Amino acid sequence: MNKDNWKAERERIFNDYADKVRKDPVRIKEVEEQKMYFEDVYMKYGMSIIGEPDENGYPLYIAMHGGGQDPTHMINEQQWEHMGIYYKGSVKRGIYINVRAVRDTWDCHGNPESFPLYDRLIENMMIFKNADPNRVYMLGYSAGGDGVYIVSPRMADRLAATHMSAGHHNGTSIYNLRNTPIQLQVGALDTAYNRHKVTVEYQVKLDGLEEKYGGYEHNTFVHINKPHNFYDYKKDELQSVIADNYKWLEDDTVTEKKADTDAIHFLDRYTRKPIPDRIVWDLTNRAPKRNVTSFYWLRAPKDETEGFIVCDLDKENNGIVIGKDTKAKTFTILLNDDMLDLDKIVNVSFGNRKWEIKVQRSEEVLENTLAEREDKNFAFTAKIDIEL
Length: 388
Hints:
Blueprint (H helix, E strand, L loop, with lengths): L5 H18 L1 H9 L1 E4 L2 E10 L7 E7 L9 H13 L7 E6 L14 H16 L1 E11 L1 H12 L6 E5 L16 E6 L7 H19 L4 E6 L15 E4 L2 H7 L4 E4 L3 H5 L10 E5 L11 E2 L2 E2 L8 E7 L4 E4 L7 E6 L10 E5 L2 E5 L5 H11 L8 E6 L1
Parallel strand pairs: 3-4, 3-5, 5-6, 6-7, 7-8, 15-17
Antiparallel strand pairs: 1-2, 2-4, 9-10, 11-14, 12-13, 13-16, 14-15, 16-19, 17-18
Helix pairs in contact: 1-9
């Protein structure tokens, strides 16, 4: 395998793998019945396919319902059914999925078993329904907004963009959203759990991260005189929102502007960049039941749940720069010939430490990375194991 034929090998391996998946009776049943199992839970979902795919396939929208802690199950069932139409009207073309939380807990969308099921859902939609892996979006309202906060940082490399309405962050880390744009919305009168204020406080955090690391594209709308409910799906109507969120957070001063707050409109602006020039990875914010151990073009052992990694792709010097903020024991850099020239020495640096590495392309690495996420955009042919 060389830099001229690795993509042909990628296509061959992926197509063979996808053919096997399409013939797998378990996977076929999951798609036909719109229900997937993991351990002792299952995730069901509604699905609408709107319009015709473009040359890259369909955008995929994964919408999370409200509700949460619900011993009767009925509130979450009703909210799930309503989410089947909630944002759907703004979708011009795409696969619109409303997922049902696996349990009726306050963190219903963030139960540990949920994460491998989200992976499975995305992979099934890519292979069976022609979903575009570079246009996968996650959005949710209320408990679904909580879910967006919980899920999207842990699966940020799966997503092109994400949208949160009327939820609470519950202290979740958002470092991993460096390459995943997010929009936050809340009602100015949504005082329960201080949701109105903590939403803007997370805007402040995102502003700080954007200044420090670049990226972290985000937007925040606080709806004037609105409680827990407000319009984040009115595709043809502008809404009244606070113009200066910082001033409002400081002393409740309300300044007004009109804005397009339609969630789908925000999401549709973005296409995922699967090979970003910079990765910021908070290893404390991982989903323990996922089989996926990679994040963009980095990989860390599953039990590595402490640490922090910043890595830059340095094409000019055919290398990787490990940022000074990095504090991790071991991790792996995954490479292909779209990233660097693998026929040349790869230069890796961490502060004053420098390594000149001759990498070897490997079909095993290519097969492994394709199987891990069933996504051709995350196909790599070489790796460098790092110990700091």
